[in-house]
Write a structure and sequence with these properties.
It contains one helix and eleven strands. It is mainly beta and 214 residues long. It has a single domain, classed as Beta Barrel (Porin).
């Protein structure tokens, strides 16, 4: 093998070894995401008044997520993650005094995430898991009455997809950005005056934020 061929082989091999070593060193991620939660409107069974729906706002939502890489190659990686999502002001609306003014949602769903090309600048991923969700309601109904409903907890199934982008090098190489959408399929809040006939609902969280790898 000529010297030129040796140099060419080293030029191809060294970046792969460096990327592999970096993948081993940076097994942990801490992520902060900010976005909105979208919940579809639900019809109220038997309602005869105007606007016979439970209408949800688009609550400002944030997520804190810790993950650890379990296995990785240059093509894909598998990580265990724990997304904890907080929607602390989900406004409600309806045509009668049958829903609370607002409620809070908390979802914690240990999951498995699969990334493609985890050591490149752009890495798409999918996530799937399950855990629990908690709903805490305002004590006051929309138009001032006392809310007969209360707090509730349910199992939650989580499915998500997103894109990780790492535009920085050298000094800031541990930082990147993430855009994502996650669906938390949960139980429903306790609404005894506004029966929708539904026992589950989709909570779509769309957001973006910062990733720190260490």
């Amino acid at each position: 093998m000529s010297g030129r061929q040796v140099v060419a082989v080293l030029a191809m091999t060294i970046p792969l070894l460096v990327a592999s070593a970096r993948a081993q060193d940076e097994k942990n991620e801490l992520t902060g995401i900010l976005g909105r939660t979208f919940i579809s409107d639900q019809g109220i069974a038997g309602a005869t008044y105007f606007n016979p729906f439970v209408r949800s706002g688009k609550g400002l939502t944030f997520e804190v997520n810790y993950s650890r890489r379990l296995y990785g190659t240059l093509v894909y990686s598998i990580s265990a993650e724990v997304p904890a999502v907080f929607n602390l002001d989900e406004d409600l609306n309806s045509g009668a005094d049958v829903v609370p003014q607002d409620y809070q949602q908390i979802f914690v769903t240990p999951s498995v995430r699969f990334n493609l090309f985890p050591e490149t600048s752009v890495s798409p991923w999918v996530s799937f898991g399950g855990g629990f969700g908690h709903f805490s309601e305002n004590n006051t109904l929309l138009y001032g009455g006392a809310n007969p409903g209360g707090s509730s907890t349910s199992g939650v199934v989580q499915g998500g997809l997103g894109l990780d982008v790492r535009p920085f090098h050298r000094r800031f190489s541990h930082f990147g950005f993430r855009g994502q959408v996650r669906d938390f399929w949960s139980g429903t809040p306790d609404l005894p005056l506004a029966a929708t006939g539904k026992t589950r609902q989709h909570n779509y969280f769309l957001g973006g934020g910062l990733v720190y790898r260490f």
